[in-house]
Amino acid sequence: MAAVRIGMTMPVMEPGLDAETLHAWATTIDDGPFSSLCWGERIAFDNPECLTFLGALAAWTRRVPLVMTVVVPQLHDPVMLAKSLATGDLLSQGRLTVALGVGGRHEDYHAVGADPSTQTMRQLAERAETMKRVWAGEKLTESVLPVGPPPFRDGGPSLHIGTTGPKTIRSAARWADGVAGVTLDLDLRKQSELFDVARSAWAEAGREAPHLATSFWFAIGEGDAPRAQVTRHLHHYMNWIPSEFVDAIAPTIGWAGTDSELAEVLRRFADIGTDEVHLIPTSTDLEQLRRAADVAAEFT
Fold first, then answer.
1. Could you tell me if 277 and 266 are in contact, meaning their C-beta atoms sit under 8 angstroms apart?
2. Where is the Luciferase-like domain (predicted)?
């Protein structure tokens, strides 16, 4: 069985967050066996703004790699986004990885006045190229000095593609260093096929093998409580879907069960060559985090 690393996502999509809760999660993740601390971007939602949060996480942690599992470049000016991410890389001393994606919600585009017609991989790739030019210290016009600060690492943060689609994965092989996906139903056959697509696409592009990561919602416990926890979370997160439809799909989304059952699921992801699994919490309860840390310790 190949090794698999276990990362933990911050509970940024839970309601009622405060600074104390977020700080406690960040420092506990940093102290634990987790391979990464993760979070993503949404605009028209009550989660923390992802770039401001990057600065806080860089200050709150010392060890754990920081992984932004999705940032949508089309929602930002690419030069300012590059400057913000370089600052985060500097503050975290090179611990930052960024997964770029086109985003799944048009209301996020509308909220910031972005054009939904730019929600394409071509537009994403063009913005990624601009960001890399900024990080390389290039002058973008003859009349302007290079945009700093220089990132901590030469070339800037590692860029991954945040997606679940084979076509999108293939199109990112030229510029991305890895894949940061998500599996809703933990279908290992489908996940394995996507990983094979990525391996082939990177090889055809003459690139080193990509870092292969996926993520899923989780709740640890006994009896019916974990599944009920996942369902409550989905009702909040999938607030654009009628409640009865969420109830219909909730039994098959994410994972719910005991500690030992979670360890077994993670072993099956290791068997298909997953480099890293990012667990997504469905509660702000620190006990969930501690139990997950005990499971993750089995894989270190």
1. yes
2. 21-245
pLDDT tens-digit series, residues 91-144: 999 999 999 999 888 999 999 999 999 999 999 999 999 999 999 999 888 878
Q: What is the CATH number of the domain that holds 172?
A: 3.20.20.30
Query: Do residues 207 and 161 make contact, with C-beta atoms less than 8 angstroms apart?
Result: no
Residue 244 resides in a domain:
no
Pairing of strands 96-100, 178-180: unpaired
- Is 36 a domain residue? yes
DSSP state letter for 162: -
- Indicate whether 32 belongs to any domain: yes
- Between the alpha carbon of residue 142 and those of residues 86, 133, 138, 223, 281, the distances in Å are 22, 14, 10, 65, 47
Q: What is the pLDDT of residues 141-178, one digit of tens each?
A: 887 889 999 999 999 999 999 988 899 999 999 999 99
Phi, psi (degrees; rounded to nearest 5) at 179: -120, 130
Cis peptide before 210 (omega within 30 of 0): no
CB atoms within 10 A of CB 198: 24
> Under DSSP, is residue 102 helix (H, G, I), strand (E, B) or coil?
coil
Q: Which two tokens stand for residue 222?
A: 């006994």
The residue segments making up the domain with residue 218 are 5-222+258-299
Q: Which of 188, 246, 179, 244 is nearest to 207 (CA)?
A: 179
Pairwise CA distance, residues 38 & 6, whole Å:
11
Q: Determine contact, residues 252/185, Cβ cutoff 8 Å.
A: yes
* Residue 235, in any domain of the structure: no
